[in-house]
Amino acid sequence: MKPKAVFISNKIYLDSNSAKGGAGICTQEYIDLLSTRFDLFLFSVTNRKSFIYRILARLGLNIYSDFDYCDYQDDLELLINEKQIGFVFLNQANTAVFGAGIKSLCGNNISVILCSHGNESGDLLHDFTRHKETQPKFKQLLNNWILGKTLVTEVKHRNGAFDGVITVSEVEVQIENWLGARKVLLMPRTIKYRNSDFNETLGVVGFVGDLSHPPNYSGLKLVCEELSKMDKANEIELRIVSSSKNEGLMLEAEFLFVKYLGYLTDNEIFDESRSWSFFLNPVFYYSRGVSTKLAWALGLGIPVITTEIGKRGYVWTNGELPLVKTPCEMASVICHYSRDIKKIYFYREQVVEIVNSGPNMDDLSLKLKEFLYK
Which one, of 6, 79, 2, lies nearest residue 36 by Cα? Predict the structure, then answer.
C-alpha cells in the first residue's frame, strides 16, 4: 500500500480542459512521477481576486503572494489529518506560502517538497538586464527592487519550510544549491515516442510555441533575420504553429519564407509536422525551466536543430542533435540540412537513439525514493 501525499497546484494546471502549455506539461510529469510512489491527492488553488492584488500583479509586485493560505487552511488541515498525509508537494515556486502554513500546522511531522518549474529570480535577472537600456530609469529602479525582494524571499523559503526541491535542469540544480536548498533532485525530461510516417518536403522546417514569450519570439526572429541574408532563403519555408496571432502575423509579413498557421490541435500538429524536415528550437539565452517543445518534437521522431541551452534538462547516452551556438549558425544549418535527404534520415535515426537511451519513469521513481527517504 502506497503512502499518501498531497500535490498543491494552481487549478489551471489541473484542469483537463485548459490548454497544456509548458507549465501544464511539466505539472503532469510531476504528477506521473509522484504517483509511482504515492497515493496522490490533488489539491487545487486559485489566485487571489482582490483589486489590490490585481494592481500588484500588473506591476510585477505580486512576489510570492499569488495565493492566500488562510483561504485553504481548514480544508488542508482536514485532508492532512483524515488521510494521514506525510508529504506535501508544491507545484511551482509561487505556491511557497503553503509550505510555511503547513509547517506551522504540522511541524516536522510532514515533509514539504517544492516541485520547481524553474527559478524565478534567475529569470528576472536575465530579463531585466537584457532589456535594461530600453527601459526608463524608474522602471529600472523598480525592477531592481523586484529582483532583490524575489531573491530574498526565495532564500527564506528554502531555509524555512522546504525540506527539499525537485527541479528540471542541471542549471537549476546549481541555482537551488546556491539559494540554500536542503537537498535537490534533478528530474530530467522523459520522452514519449509516437512513431510517425513522414511525408517530408525538402526545405520545410517548423516551429511550435508561444511567441508572446520573449525568449521564443526573440530567438525565432533572430534566426529569420539571418536566414533572410542567405542565398538559399528562397528554398526554405518556415511554418509556425502558435496561438500568438499578432507576433505570428508580424513574422509572416516581414519574412517571405515564413508561413503562420495559427493555433492547431494536437492531432492537427501531428499531421502537419509529418512534412517537416527539422523542428527549430531557437533558444539563445537562459530562461527558467526547460523547453518542453524539445520533448514533443523528439517524441514525434522529428530531428531538432537547437542549442546547448535549448536542451538543458534532457539527458541521454546515445544519439545526437545538430547543435548551434548562434542564430547565424542555425540559419546556415537550416539551409544546408533541410534540403539534404541524407542528413534528414541520419538525424531521424539519431532521434530514435536519443529516445531509447533517455531516462524512463522507473529510473526517476527510484531516484525519487532515495531523495525523499535518504
Answer: 2
145 contacts: CB under 8 Å, gap ≥ 6: none
Specify whether the CB–CB gap between 310 and 283 falls below 8 A: yes
* 3-class DSSP assignment, residue 280: strand
Our count of domains for the chain comes to: 2
Domain range holding 148?
A: 4-188+360-373
Q: Are residues 132 and 236 in the same domain?
A: no
Contact 213, 247 (CB under 8 A): no
Residues 177 and 233 reside in one and the same domain: no
315-347 confidence digits (pLDDT tens): 999 999 999 999 999 999 999 999 999 999 999
Residue matched to cell numbers 511551482: 92
pLDDT at residue 270 greater than cutoff 80:
yes
Burial of 77 (0-12, 13-18, 19+ CB in 10 A): middle
The band of 18, judged by pLDDT with boundaries at 50, 70 and 90, is low
Is residue 191 within 8 A of residue 291, CB to CB? The reply is no
Q: Rounded to whole angstroms, what are the CA distances from 320 to 120, 170, 283, 338, 354?
A: 30, 19, 17, 16, 7
Provide the whole-model pTM.
0.86
